[in-house]
């Protein structure tokens, strides 16, 4: 199925709950609300025409321009996105689902934004979500064990955020 | 063995106990396998047949620190790994030596500026005896580092107390000596000879049109 047919099938079921769609990008995608993510994912996985049974990758992207002089030319508002790359073995088509989140929950710096976890749908999401939590600081609700996977367990901060400051020292070893 | 002094008969050699023990120690340095990243490949290449590390006596890589006396830290050290590196170093029995192999262990290497999880040089975690720079260092460079450790062992004094320890100046300078056809006392003439040699080999190497 082409991307247009996939999107048409999703819109037939969910209608207005799909916020945005893009067919011209290299990977056509739809943008959904965080609350609808699990339902849309279940439809993508179980529908016999769609059958997206493999989750390739989950990525966390931080849209923030750290240089104040270039903010006007940036072209986006500061926010965070989670990108899900899906693939089907039976039909051999691909699709991308994106979820857009505020950078901090309730605009309080330090409180991580939340999105429901898709571990119940695709098992490979387990470690991908741990990596996104570790590096980009996005909390996944319903994850069986959301702990840091790459950095040390008592690390503070999320390095792939654009406003991350390198630590001066870690347990006595100087950092910079 | 030029430092063994005096010979009385055919099969009697005299030396000092320190020199004999140091010779035994330097000729059987058993390294601990501590390949963390890409430098481990070069360490394996050094231990393989072309650049044999076993001819220095250091071919027996021990997997356990309790039986090793040389730790070649080959590869990037993360903050997560730094505590384990220190713990394994503490588990090695004395006398122990550490080679910091590769740019990452010498001072952070390519991750010096933006590596948030990289220890900027393993000497922040363990005391290092010899630094071998390179990314990765060639096997010959690692063997030079091993020979510097052997020089350091040769200078150890522990039977004569309160003596200053003199780490001997290495007998090898690390500079390659060119054959007489390519070297000259006058540096300009030497460069001309080397250019002519390079040009001749390049002309020999260009394929002839079929």
What does it look like?
Chain A has a single domain, classed as NADH:ubiquinone oxidoreductase Nqo5 subunit (Beta Polymerase, domain 2, 2-Layer Sandwich). In chain A, 19% of the residues lie in helices and 26% in strands. Chain A contains 3 helices and 9 strands, in the order αββαββββαβββ. In chain A, the strands form 3 sheets. Chain A has a 5-stranded mixed sheet with strand order 1-2-5-4-3, with helices on one face. A two-stranded parallel ribbon of chain A has the order 6-7. In chain A, a hairpin with a 2-residue loop joins strand 8 (169-170) and strand 9 (173-174). With 210 residues, chain B is of the alpha/beta class. Chain B is 34% helix and 7% strand. Chain B has 6 helices and 4 strands; from the N terminus they run αβαβαβαβαα. A 4-stranded parallel sheet of chain B has the order 1-2-3-4. In chain B, helix 1 runs antiparallel to helix 5 and helix 2 crosses helix 5. Chain B starts with 16 loop residues before the first helix and ends in a 5-residue tail after the last helix. Classes of the chains: A alpha/beta (176), B alpha/beta (210). Chains A and B meet through strand 9 of A and helix 3 of B.
User: Strand sequence of the main sheet of chain B, in spatial order?
Assistant: 1-2-3-4
Estimated structural class of chain B: alpha/beta
H and E order of chain A: HEEHEEEEHEEE
Tally the structural domains of chain B.
2
Oligomer: heterodimer
Q: Find the CATH topology of chain A.
A: Beta Polymerase, domain 2
Strand coverage percent of chain A: 25-35%
Task: Give the radius of gyration of chain A.
Answer: 18 Å
Distance between the termini of chain B: 56 Å
Largest sheet entry of chain B: 4 strands, parallel
What is the β-strand count of chain A?
A: 9
Q: Major sheet of chain A: order of its strands?
A: 1-2-5-4-3
Distance between the termini of chain A: 51 Å
Question: Largest protein interface?
Answer: A-B, 14 and 10 residues
CATH topological fold name of the largest domain in chain B: Rossmann fold
Q: What number is the mean pLDDT of chain B?
A: 85
**What CATH architecture label of the largest domain in chain B applies?**
3-Layer(aba) Sandwich
Assign the CATH class of chain A: Alpha Beta
Compute the gyration radius of chain B: what is it?
A: 22 Å
Q: Quickly count the domains of chain A.
A: 1
How can the largest sheet of chain A be summarized?
5 strands, mixed
